[in-house]
């Protein structure tokens, strides 16, 4: 029997049938009126999901392309840039800032910890002239969510842009771009937005535009002024991934129909059940629970067990794909994504198969105990336990 | 979020991606050489799955159409026909035989029981001149599997045709058409064969052809001699459901690649886990365990609980679709299909959600206990518990 693929990795995530169907519509020319009409609606919906009045652009690239666009358009060579690193994607900000010749100040909070806001405030006060802060909302590599609202408040009265990687949070965790004072927000299609990979999303505040207009860093494909010019006609500077635009449009319809609040509550509930299950199984979360992500749960592999061996059992036997650890955490953690098109039954299935995989590897597991813990969370969520 | 549909009803069943992809190929003319080439391969594969040298036909109809074809081509008005009823689909044979004006002898073994072979033998001996026996291999309505091998052996030296409904068994439970002496076997696309509904399959033995050639019952669309004439050119008498032919061809490739023995073993394992789980939850199987079907498990609703209320919770909350009881069993049983494109993770998911649904309805359930029982079956299946 061909394996049933059950993606529980933090992107790409499962694609709803309505999105798949939308993407199968005939390709149209991207300079056509029809495409402009679809784009206009799409950008309108995107601004609702980003909770912003800023202009929002869609780039045909991965999320990393969106991150590069953010740096290449806002950071001049020699600019003092503070990078808040909490894992692999914070390091990516750092690497991008270095490549664009920024004067990089790295604050590294360690893989598994959130940003220490007090330390950031102290640093900002001690280090005048920081032009840009690069931050990660949901650090996918460690399952940590950072407090962007607090960061934004801290920067409100400074001449410092806040640039945020919301690649894996947008559509799963609340992102209040304007209320949080986020100047440039970057996201991507293949995470909680439930679309296949290929699109980056980027929003730009008026304050950011002032910097962009005088930014001398080299860029062409990712040039935001060119994107702005094209957007005036609901178009893109270069050829867009037309079918992914259809898919994103359909996915945003699903998100707005469910309602943002309900989408976020669903992710919180699935995360709570996942955490309850792994704890009941005697496993340990990587991050402190207060900073644990609503979209991906990072779990330390139980003593001596290779996390990647565990993942292999799950993939080979059950078609369940968890993510592994990256960098220094390789083999030491596994990550269960509950991001996007995921429901309670998916979590119960993941936990029940995890129990079998743990037993298979000789870990002393009380079969059914993690499942029961997740079930209790779901029953309580309806006041039924 | 749009509900994820998890079909665990005894047809239609989930369709594998490779089958879905095959069905999306461009439609071709059904009198073309290309279609004949596909058909030739398809009929060859079908004979392997039916384990027969007999001619096999594909009719564009549901399985009921295939059953009508079997009766309309073999039963003359006034023929003595013995119908072995173990549930709804045995009753359908009876109704068809009556409509075609047979002299119907009904042996009814009750919903939930298998055919009593000794009683059949006694009846055959007592009642000379029975021309046709109509039997059900897997009685979908009650989760009972009947011993067709024994029936076939009993009829080998009598001038009595054995006509078998293998609609829900073929591709999930072994069917040895020739070795079991089955004259006419009927199946359909949407059960263990993993194809959407729309095709019936029917095989005809040389002995059955002798009857068919002199059968005076009226039929046109379901006329098997017309089908035979068309099949000589790898064609069909009337327009076939072309895309479903593509799908069936792809599904048979999957089944033959997995290997018939492994397909049957997988179904037996999934059934064993399902039965272990429901018993661990204190629920009662409808049939005696020795006659319990490898493709669908029928479970009595726990004291006082309306099975349909339970099914509603599962469908509304988890997107899990179990079947209900039919006829006299409505509201009193639910049926979990593990038929076709189903794997271990599907069973664990179904059991874990069933536990939540039972708790939701106030049934005293030890959360996780059914899941653990199913997990143990899977661990033992690999010698790991």
The top-level CATH class of the largest domain in chain A is Alpha Beta
What can be said about the biggest beta sheet of chain A?
A: 7 strands, mixed
Number of domains of chain A: 2
Distance between the termini of chain A: 38 Å
Number of helices of chain A: 13
SSE order of chain A in H/E notation? EHHEHEHEHEEEHEEEHHHHEEHEEHH
Query: Roughly how many Å is the radius of gyration of chain A?
Result: 21 Å
What topology, given as strand order, has the largest sheet of chain A?
2-10-9-8-5-3-4
Question: How many DSSP E strands of chain A?
Answer: 14
Coarse structural class of chain A: alpha/beta
| Net shape of chain A | globular
Helix content of chain A: 40-55%
Mean pLDDT rating of chain A: 97
Which helices and strands, and how do they pair?
Two copies of one chain form a homodimer.
Chain A: E1 6-8, H1 17-23, H2 33-50, E2 55-60, H3 63-74, E3 80-85, H4 88-99, E4 103-108, H5 117-126, E5 132-136, E6 138-139, E7 144-145, H6 148-155, E8 161-165, E9 184-188, E10 199-204, H7 206-214, H8 224-231, H9 242-258, H10 260-280, E11 284-285, E12 296-300, H11 307-318, E13 320-324, E14 333-337, H12 344-360, H13 369-381
Parallel strand pairs in A: 1-13, 3-4, 3-5, 5-8, 8-9
Antiparallel strand pairs in A: 2-10, 6-7, 9-10, 11-12, 12-14, 13-14
């Amino acid at each position: 029997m061909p394996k049933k693929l059950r993606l529980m990795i933090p992107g790409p995530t499962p694609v709803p049938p309505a999105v798949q169907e939308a993407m199968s519509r005939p390709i149209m020319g991207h300079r056509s009126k029809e495409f402009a009409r679809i784009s206009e609606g799409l950008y309108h919906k995107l601004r609702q999901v980003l909770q912003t009045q800023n202009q929002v652009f869609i780039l045909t690239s991965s999320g990393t392309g969106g991150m590069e666009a953010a740096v290449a358009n806002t950071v001049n060579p020699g600019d003092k840039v503070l990078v808040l690193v909490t894992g692999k994607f914070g390091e990516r900000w750092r690497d991008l800032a270095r490549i664009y010749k920024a004067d990089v100040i790295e604050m590294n909070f360690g893989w598994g910890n959130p940003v220490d806001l007090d330390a950031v405030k102290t640093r900002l006060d001690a280090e005048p002239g920081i032009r840009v802060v690069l931050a990660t909302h949901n650090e996918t590599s460690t399952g940590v969510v950072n407090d962007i609202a607090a960061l934004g408040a801290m920067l409100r009265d400074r001449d410092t842009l806040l640039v945020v990687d919301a690649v894996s949070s947008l559509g799963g965790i609340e992102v209040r771009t304007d209320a949080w004072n986020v100047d440039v927000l970057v996201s991507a299609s293949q995470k909680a937005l439930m679309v296949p990979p290929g699109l980056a999303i980027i929003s730009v505040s008026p304050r950011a535009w002032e910097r962009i207009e005088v930014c001398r860093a080299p860029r062409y494909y990712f040039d935001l002024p060119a994107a702005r010019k094209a957007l005036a006609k609901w178009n893109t500077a270069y050829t867009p991934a037309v079918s992914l635009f259809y898919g994103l449009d359909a996915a945003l319809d699903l998100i707005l129909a469910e309602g943002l609040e309900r989408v976020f509550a669903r992710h919180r509930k699935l995360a709570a059940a996942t955490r309850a299950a792994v704890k009941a199984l005697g496993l340990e979360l990587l991050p402190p629970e207060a900073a644990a992500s609503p979209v991906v749960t990072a779990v330390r592999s139980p003593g001596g067990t290779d996390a990647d061996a565990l993942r292999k059992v799950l993939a080979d036997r059950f078609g369940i794909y968890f993510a592994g650890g990256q960098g220094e955490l390789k083999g030491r953690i596994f990550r269960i994504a509950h991001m996007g098109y995921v429901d309670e039954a998916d979590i119960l299935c993941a936990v029940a198969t995890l129990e079998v995989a743990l037993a298979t590897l000789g870990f002393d597991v009380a079969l059914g105990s993690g499942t029961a813990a997740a079930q209790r969370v779901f029953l309580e969520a309806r006041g039924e336990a």
